Amino acid sequence: MTQEIWEGFIKAFELLLSKDPETYSAIYTTLRATSYSMIASLLIGVPLGFALGYFDFRGKKFCRTLVHTLLALPTVFIGLMLYILLSRSGPLGNLGLLFTVPAIAIGQTILALPIVIALTSTAIESLDKGLRLTLMTLGASKRQLLFSSLWEARYGILAAAVTAYGRVLTEVGISLMVGGNIKWHTRTITTAIALETAKGEFAMSLALGFVLLFIAFTVNFSLAYLRRRV
């Protein structure tokens, strides 16, 4: 087992240094899908999380319970529902999104959205209760209240982004079901790992796994550096 891990580690470096086209295709597809999904989930999730944490309204408890329930949403269920919607006989079949990178990104957005909303709302609720009153006393507008609160909660929002990215980067079910694991087109690192493992190519699977860890580490390191800067 130790030898297999070591071989996988060496193989990972060989794949990266030799610029293996199949490996880089999977990396590029993975980065495309996760980037699209993170941009969408942050653009939608941060405002919704802010509203959930900042305002008091009827049904807030139900909304929070719903968001927390969706945190445990299985990836295969998301993939199944999207497959039904995007298949030719489905209501969105005419869009031609099935077995494409955008379809994977849509599924990953659904997966990441509850994480962003939940952690953003928690970050907003944990702000000093006197912040809003102080800003209003100083004559801040609603827009200034919004951006000042988001700035104070920036570390919590960054944590939400990191957590959500880790979730979408490592998911398999959505990518397999709506992406189809098509070589050169929709094959991601995680689906490639599943394929290589099924073929018994454990060294290759471990190599791709190390590549995935390297990407995750790079993203986390970058966000940690950004956190220190801001």
Overview of this structure, please?
The chain is mostly helical. The chain has a single domain (2-229), classed as MetI-like fold (Orthogonal Bundle), CATH 1.10.3720.10. It is 77% helix and 0% strand. It has helices spanning 2-17, 21-54, 60-70, 75-86, 101-125, 130-137, 142-152, 154-169, 173-179, 189-198, 202-229. α4 (75-86) crosses α5 and α4 (75-86) packs parallel to α9 (173-179). The longest helix is centred in the N-terminal third of the chain and has 34 residues, at 21-54. It is globular, with a radius of gyration of 20 Å. The model has no long low-confidence stretch (mean pLDDT 85).
Report a brief summary of the structure.
The chain is mainly alpha-helical.
Give the SSE layout.
Layout: H1 2-17, H2 21-54, H3 60-70, H4 75-86, H5 101-125, H6 130-137, H7 142-152, H8 154-169, H9 173-179, H10 189-198, H11 202-229
Jot down its keywords.
globular, 11 helices, mainly alpha, MetI-like fold, 230 residues
CATH superfamily: MetI-like
Low-confidence stretches: none
Helix share, percent:
over 70%
Number of helices: 11
Biggest sheet character = none
Give the structural class: mainly alpha
How does CATH name the architecture?
Orthogonal Bundle
- Measured between the Cα atoms of the first and last residue, the distance is 43 Å
How would you classify the quaternary structure? single chain
The structural domain count equals 1
Shape: globular
**Average pLDDT metric:** 85
The gyration radius over C-alpha positions equals: 20 Å
- Which series of helices and strands comes N to C? HHHHHHHHHHH
Counted beta strands:
0
Strand content: under 5%
* CATH T-level fold name: MetI-like fold
Overall CATH class:
Mainly Alpha
